[in-house]
Specification:
By secondary structure, this protein is of the alpha+beta class. The chain folds into four domains: 177 residues, Galactose-binding lectin (Jelly Rolls, Sandwich); 100 residues, Sandwich (Immunoglobulin-like), CATH 2.60.40.1180; 305 residues, TIM Barrel (Alpha-Beta Barrel); 36 residues, no CATH class. Strands 15-28-27-26-25-24-19-16 form an eight-stranded parallel beta sheet. Helix 6 packs across helix 10 and helix 13 runs parallel beside helix 14. The chain is globular. It starts with a helix and ends with a strand.
Amino acid sequence: MVKKLLVLGLAVTLLVGIAFAWRVRQVARLTRSAASAGAAVSARVAVPLEVAEVAYDGKLGQGWQDWGWGPHELPSTAGPAKINFSSFGGFLLHHSEIRSTFGALSFRYLAPYAPPEFLAVKLRGGYGTFPRVQVEPAHVAIESGGWREVLIPWRELNPGNLAIDGVSIGAASSVPSEWVLIDKIVFTKATQAGAQSAPSRVANLRIECGAAGKPISDAIYGAADGDWESGISAQRLGGNPMSRLNWDDKFANSANDWFFENSKGGDVVEMVGRAHASPTALVVPTIGWVAKDATSVGFPRSKFPKQRKFDPNRPDVGDGYTPDGQPIKPGPPTETSTAAPPEMIGRWVRELTERDRARGGRGVWMYILDNEPALWSTTHRDVHPDPLTYDELLDRTVRYATEIRAADPQALIAGPAEWGWLGYLFSAKDQATDPSGKPDRRAHGDQPLVAWYLKSLAEHERKTGKRLLDVLDLHFYPAAAGVYGADAKIDPASAELRIRSTRALWDPSYRDESWIQESIALIPRMQAWVAENYPGLKTSIGEWSFGADEHISGALATAEALGRFGQMGLDSAFYWGGPKAGSGTFWAFRAFRNFDAKGGRFLDLSLPTRDAQNVSVFASKDKSGTHIVAVIVNRDPTFAADASLNLEGCGRPVSRRIFSYGAGSKALASATTDPAPAPDSRFAVAPYSIAVIDLQVERR
């Protein structure tokens, strides 16, 4: 019996051994076959990796955790991980948030079956979704022993350059239930040679130098609270606090931005003086009330004990709403404020101009008639609880502008400084009821608020001989969810929407992708309103931003907007809340204002251009026509632009400098300098990037 069992055991062992040897030979044959097949189509040669971050190399990298998923085993000492990718299994590694920019993700794998390219890779993060990238032959280099090294460019995995907190490697197709070895999961440095390669698309761009050129106003590069190193050309002193700023006693009110509290305010003279010798656009109160002291509040707990919120720093100060969110009727304006009639504002303006004369220079170049008056019944409802009407807006404009004009006849006066789409078309009274009913608008010939306002002021000038408005001033912020504001997102879809939203500034064919769902075409609309109702006025966008200042999508949207401002003949514009030092929007401004850190800038005359798919080109020339500066914006997150510039009627280029800024860039940097460029010579513009082309040409 024992002997029979021995024989049987030997037979089983022999069969197992034969089967194992056969399987080893089969795996080797399949691996060699797959390697040969892969080698025939692979577009990549293995190169030494410049590793920046290790997720797994024989063991988990520092800070990385195994978050499981499909069946897998990690060795107890060191070695490759074993993953079973059957039933679309995979491997998930987690790390605390990483904000670095990398060149690529790389890993090695050895599979006992064909076809080899059955894997897909996806990053993880808290700011949105990432593309799921299937491993293709172009990603793969064949190594000895059947191992395959995968290298996926960062732009494919993370086109928006978002923060990440993990990576998953999973099956993209059905595979057998067998172990696959995975090792050396690493992120390469952003400078990794070849890692940032991206598919390219030909972009044939054209600049028409034969045109006379449209003057570009220097004032389109203005900002509120921006870093002057960005090259901003003018400052705007505005926002809700300026509506209630007491210039005499230097008291301010925070309005609904912070519990309707009075506080110490700024010194207007000092604020104007910080303009770095650049012109200032100053918001002046027309609401009729300014802060009377530094301590009063609109909705004290002592008077209104039950409110929705209270200031965490001053528990006796409420937000002016009942616990269920209904607005509380305020007390009289005198509880926080003192009256500010037109005569007071006129006196303030005269004092400013007298100071200017004493120092021999002009400080304020433009006076803006308050800030977003259609929102007063919300932002400043402690002193102006009733919604503004067509007639009140016109009345306040006439009375206050008359005093300002008398006090400083040479300054520009701008208005109505409205907040956005509904504010352009309807009064606050219309908006408080239902814009579709529009009772106030119907009572004024069913004309859009801005058109009626301009027409009425033009009629006032005809009757009195006094021009009270020089500039049509409106504000613009994108209305689509997640693009601008506290909830601004930078996931790929939101980033692309942010950049597309710039079309609302200029493109009549673009239907705004928000609750608006209409063509805004703000700059052409403003220019048409002026031409039809009050010819000769300038146009200004007193506040604007597309959000995501730190992200490449914010930089691209900003560059796109600045280019359109010059191209469309806008007279002035002021970026709100920046650009902050070192941000993406900072470098977008620098592309137009100081691209070489030596004063190189977009020039004075805008030239007609022809764009390409997802690539915008903005061009300028000097008066001699021998200096051309172009800014190119590649709005495509995936494709690089294989670009050429057709310099139609420009002359022969004699020198060319290229500067670039893209995802992961620390600054706008010199890319190439070519002392003798060939006409129409091609150059690369990376996905999601800005390029500045500085050309000297020889006129024929």
